[in-house]
Amino acid sequence: MATQTGPAADAKPPSDKAPSILKNVYWKEFGLLAFVWVAFLGLQITKNYVASCSGWYWVLNSLQIPVAIGVTMYEAHGLITGKRVLSSKGSQQQSKLRVGQALIYSLFGILAGIIGGLLGMGGGFIMGPLFLELGIHPQVSSATATFTMMFSSSMSVVEYYLLHRFPMPYASYLTAVAFVAAIVGQHCVRKLIAWLGRASLVIFILASMIFVSALTLGGVGISNIVQKMQQHQYMGFESLCKV
């Protein structure tokens, strides 16, 4: 997790023994994320059972805003008052986060979500460079960005499964391929970092992925525009209430 509780996190003497996974998880923070996950999933599923653009449709959509703002303000208050720290920043961490910094970081998170939604990119691709700019260690930044993508994509997978919107064999195959690729990639990168002795390799990999994604999105977009222009198709905005 990116934050931990306590003044300067109640520093403990260093130890060569690695803590177990269960002891290394901040369960209060994990519970907060689980609450957001369940709340958003419930609202998204319930929204599909009401008429599009009806009063309840907009109420259910709007309820996601107070949930997100409430959790953000709770975490920001902890960082501002010093009850929580960005433990991943180590000795570079300030005792308290300034109000202006908390507002700017929250705004960047909102913009990252909007851009990711408009471009169809995972939020982790956008949050990764932001974490690096905040001074987070490259490996921690990459892990947090990956968790961000898993957090949002798992919600969509469960939603589509419950609504019967994708074939299970197809989804199972893609899940298996992604899981194996992630394990192999993590193992290879860890070996390369140990061999080269430079964690900055993570930065170059992240930058390369963003560059390739930008080229791919641009290429596909241009191709679709040319095709629609040749077929004289409508390329304006569609109605939000169109089923």
UniProtKB/TrEMBL annotation:
Transmembrane segments: 30-50, 56-81, 102-131, 143-163, 170-189, 201-226
Localization: Membrane
UniProt keyword list: Membrane, Transmembrane, Transmembrane helix
Lineage: Eukaryota, Viridiplantae, Streptophyta, Embryophyta, Tracheophyta
PANTHER family, sorted: CEREBLON, SULFITE EXPORTER TAUE_SAFE FAMILY PROTEIN
Organism: Digitaria exilis
Record membrane topology: Multi-pass membrane protein
Pfam families given in the database record: TauE
A GO cellular component entry from the record: membrane
Entry annotated with the keyword Protein biosynthesis: no
Family stated for the protein in its record: Belongs to the 4-toluene sulfonate uptake permease (TSUP) (TC 2.A.102) family.
UniProt name for this protein: Sulfite exporter TauE/SafE
Highest taxon of the lineage: Eukaryota
Biological processes, Gene Ontology terms: protein ubiquitination
Keyword check for Transmembrane helix: yes
